[in-house]
Amino acid sequence: MELQLYLLLGIVIFLFLFCLVLLVSFLRLNKRYRQFMTGSDGLNLETKLLILQDDVKELQRDFAVNESLLKELKLLLEHTFQGIGVVRFNAFRDTGGDLSFAIAFLDGRKNGVVVTGIYGREESRIYAKPLQEGNSIYPLTEEEKEAIKKALALRKAAIGGKDEEDSESYR
User: Fold this and answer.
1) How far apart are CA 128 and CA 27, in angstroms?
2) Other C-beta atoms lying within 10 Å of the C-beta of residue 85
3) Each residue of 40-59: pLDDT tens digit?
4) What span, in angstroms and rounded, lies between the C-alpha atoms of 165 and 171?
5) Rounded to two decimals, what is the model's pTM?
């Protein structure tokens, strides 16, 4: 009987020590939990999550506004000059210095104008020919075609080479 009493006492002591270890572990865990829930700035986790949710909503609104503005700018940029090509040449044998020129101005849709200035000793003339999709309803000189080709190449480089048929779209 005495042996059973010692055995029972040993089990009680063991359980008591086990409970003490569990209590210390629980207190440490509870302390860490409270620190996690309140954070270093004194706000609890729920408040932080609500603040983050408001921030996300605000960012979504800003994103929608920026997306709308970006679409407007893209439409506007299609109508601005994106490619300019210049060719200087000598129109007549008796003049020197390549004083004549052809300049092509193209927008995002390959629409624009090619302006040609012919310099002569007696007179100078300037011609403008409208362009639609890189082509003109008026006959183009070789210099004008070269200016258009340069403008298309510059335009293609400006948009990162994302074009389908720039090389021979003029006639």
Assistant:
1) 87
2) 22
3) 666 777 888 899 999 999 99
4) 13
5) 0.58
